[in-house]
Design brief:
The structure is a single chain. Helix 5 packs across helix 6, helix 6 crosses helix 7 and helix 10 packs across helix 12. Helix 3 links the parallel strand 4 and strand 5. The termini are far apart. The protein is built from 15 helices and 17 strands. About 30% of the residues lie in helices and about 20% in strands. The chain has a single domain, classed as Peroxisomal Thiolase, Chain A, domain 1.
C-alpha cells in the first residue's frame, strides 16, 4: 500500500526506558518530632511511634515551589555533567500551586536560556501526590513514541506540605526530586506492568485558593489509600500473570517477586500497614495457604474475610503486621530513610523512598532486582508499577554512577540544622500570613540555606517572583565542577555558565532569575 512501511523497517522500541539519574533536594532545617510532641501537648510517642516520624523538614518564606524545583534541576544537571540542550521534554508534577495559569515548568525554562534550547515539550501535571508519577509515565511514553527526537526527558516532582495547627501538622514536609529519563537506563520501567485505580473521592483536597492548607477527611483518606492499594495490586497481579502465561511461565505472583517495595509515604506507619495489606492480599489470593508454618502461620481465622470490610479492623491489621514484620525489614524499611527524617514531600514522596533504597545498597546488591512502587494521590489516582534494575554493576556503569550520586543522602540529612518547635511554629504562621502577598520581600535567612540553593528574593506588586542562587561550596566555573568521569552526556556539550537576568534584591555574588519579564 502507498505509504506503508515493511515490518523489517519499523523502528524498534527503545530498550530499557526508565530512570537514568535521580536527584533529591530537601530543606536545610527540620523540627524534631519528639520536641514537637511536647510543644503540642500530646502524649509521648504520638508522632514518633504512632506516625513513625522522627524529624520534619520545612521551608522558610525564602523557598517556594519554584525555588525547590530550580534547585533540584540545577543540581541534577551539574552533578551529571549535562547540558540543557540535551533535554527534549521537561514535565513537573506538583500540587503546590502558586499561580493558576503559569506553570512551574515555564519558570524552570530560564535555566535553559544560555543553551538556546526552547524546544522542550511538557508542562505541569496536578493531582495531589500523584502528579510526579503521571509526569514520569508521560516522559517514558514520550521516549517510547514516534515523537521522541533522541534527547532525554526530565521529570521534576516537588511540593511543600503544610497543614493548619493540629493533628495533621506533624505529617508535613517539603522537598523535590528530579529524574532523568532515557533508554538503556539502570532503572527500567517494566513494560505493560502498571496497575492503576482512579475514582472520585473527597478524602483530601484544596478548594481554598488563598490558603496553602488542605481539607482532610483522615479516616476516608486511609480507606481510599488502602482500597486503591488493593485494586492496583490486583490489576498488577493479573497483568504479570498474563505476561508469564504468554512466555510459558507457570507460577503465582506474590510479594516474593519484589526484592524491594516502596510506597507513597504520608507517614511511615501507614507504609508499614500497607506492606501488611499486600500480605493480606497474597493470603486471600492463595488457593491453599499453609497456615501451619511459614509467613501465613496462625492466620487461618482470617481465611474468609472480605478485604473491603477490614480497613479499620484492628485484629486483621495487628495479625498481618506481625506476620509481615520480617518482610517489611527486608523489602521496605530501607525505603523510609527520607520519609522518617524529612516527612511527607507529597509528589516526590515515593521517589524519595526509591532514592533511599538506592542510597543504602551497593550496585552489586541492587543489580537484577525488581522494585515495586505504589503511587497514590488523593481525589483519587493511584498506580502500582515496577522497575527492574540493570544487571550491569561494573565500576563506571550507569548503575554505579546512580548509586554513587546518592551515597551522600544520609550525610546530607544529618547536616541539616535543627530548630525549636517555637521557631517552626513561627515559620508556619509567617507562611500563612504572607504566601499570597504581592510586593513582598521574604524575611527568612539566606545564610542558613544549603550551598547552591535557589531562593525567593521578592514578589513584586504584580505577583511576579524573582529568585537568586546561593553560591556553591566549590564556587568555581561550571565546567571545572563537572565530573567528566561520571558524565552521562550523549547529545550536547554541558552549559558553560549560569543563567542571569537583571539584578534583584539578592545577596551580593548570588545569581538571579525571575518568573516574569520586567
Amino acid at each position: 500500500m502507498p505509504g506503508s512501511t515493511p515490518d523489517s523497517c519499523l523502528p524498534q522500541w527503545p530498550k530499557d526506558v526508565g530512570i537514568m539519574a535521580l536527584e533529591v533536594y530537601f530543606p536545610s532545617q527540620f523540627v524534631d518530632q519528639t520536641e514537637l510532641e511536647e510543644f503540642d501537648g500530646v502524649s509521648s510517642g504520638k508522632y514518633t511511634i504512632g506516625l513513625g516520624q522522627a524529624r520534619m523538614g520545612f521551608c522558610s518564606d525564602r523557598e517556594d515551589i519554584n525555588s525547590l524545583c530550580l534547585t533540584v534541576v540545577q543540581r541534577l544537571m551539574e552533578r551529571n555533567g549535562l547540558g540543557f540542550d540535551s533535554i527534549g521534554r521537561l514535565e513537573v508534577g506538583t500540587e503546590t500551586i502558586i499561580d493558576k495559569s503559569k506553570s512551574v515548568k515555564t519558570v524552570l525554562m530560564q535555566l535553559f536560556e544560555d543553551s538556546g534550547n526552547t524546544d522542550v515539550e511538557g508542562v505541569d501535571t496536578t493531582n495531589a501526590c500523584y502528579g510526579g508519577t503521571a509526569a514520569l509515565f508521560n516522559a517514558v511514553n514520550w521516549v517510547e513514541s514516534s515523537s521522541w527526537d533522541g534527547r532525554y526527558a526530565l521529570v521534576v516532582a516537588g511540593d511543600i506540605a503544610v497543614y493548619a495547627s493540629g493533628s495533621a501538622r506533624p505529617t508535613g514536609g517539603a522537598g523535590a526530586v528530579a529524574m532523568l529519563v532515557g533508554p538503556n537506563a539502570p532503572l527500567a520501567l517494566d513494560r505493560g506492568l502498571r496497575g492503576t485505580h482512579m475514582k472520585h473521592a473527597y478524602d483530601f483536597y484544596k478548594p481554598d485558593m488563598v490558603s496553602e492548607y488542605p481539607v482532610v477527611d483522615g479516616k476516608q483518606s486511609i480507606e481510599c489509600y488502602l482500597s486503591a492499594l488493593d485494586r492496583c495490586y490486583a490489576v498488577y497481579r493479573n497483568k504479570i500473570h498474563a505476561q508469564w502465561q504468554r512466555a510459558g511461565v507457570e507460577k503465582s505472583f506474590s510479594l516474593d517477586d519484589f526484592r524491594f517495595l516502596a510506597f507513597h509515604s504520608p507517614y511511615c506507619k501507614l507504609v508499614q500497614k500497607s506492606l501488611a495489606r499486600l500480605m493480606l492480599n497474597d493470603f486471600l489470593a492463595c488457593p491453599t495457604p499453609n497456615t501451619q508454618t511459614g509467613p501465613f502461620a496462625g492466620l487461618e481465622a482470617f481465611r474468609d474475610i472480605k478485604p473491603e470490610e477490614t480497613y479499620f479492623d484492628r485484629d486483621v491489621e495487628k495479625a498481618f503486621m506481625k506476620a509481615s514484620a520480617e518482610i517489611f525489614e527486608k523489602k521496605t524499611k530501607s525505603s523510609l530513610l527520607i520519609s522518617n527524617q524529612n516527612g511527607n514531600m507529597y509528589t516526590p514522596s515515593v521517589y524519595g523512598c526509591l532514592a533511599s533504597v538506592i542510597a543504602q545498597y551497593t550496585p552489586e546488591q541492587l543489580a537484577g532486582q525488581r522494585v515495586g512502587l505504589f503511587s497514590y494521590g488523593s481525589g483519587l489516582a493511584a498506580t502500582l508499577y515496577s522497575v527492574s534494575v540493570t544487571q550491569d554493576h561494573t565500576p563506571g556503569s550507569p548503575l554505579d554512577k546512580l548509586v554513587s550520586s546518592l551515597c551522600d543522602l544520609k550525610a546530607r540529612l544529618d547536616s541539616r540544622r535543627k530548630v525549636s518547635p517555637v521557631v517552626f511554629s513561627e515559620n508556619m504562621k509567617l507562611r500563612e500570613e504572607t504566601h499570597h502577598l504581592a510586593s513582598y520581600v521574604p524575611q527568612g535567612s539566606v545564610e542558613e540555606l544549603f550551598p547552591g540553593t535557589w531562593y525567593l528574593t521578592r514578589v513584586d506588586d504584580k505577583h511576579r517572583r524573582e529568585y537568586a542562587r546561593c553560591a556553591n561550596m566549590d564556587d568555581f566555573p561550571l565546567e571545572a565542577r563537572q565530573r567528566n568521569s561520571n558524565s552521562m552526556e550523549h547529545f550536547a556539550a554541558p552549559a558553560t555558565k549560569m543563567p542571569c537576568t537583571p539584578a534583584s534584591t539578592a545577596v551580593p555574588g548570588d545569581l538571579v532569575i525571575t518568573n516574569g519579564d520586567h
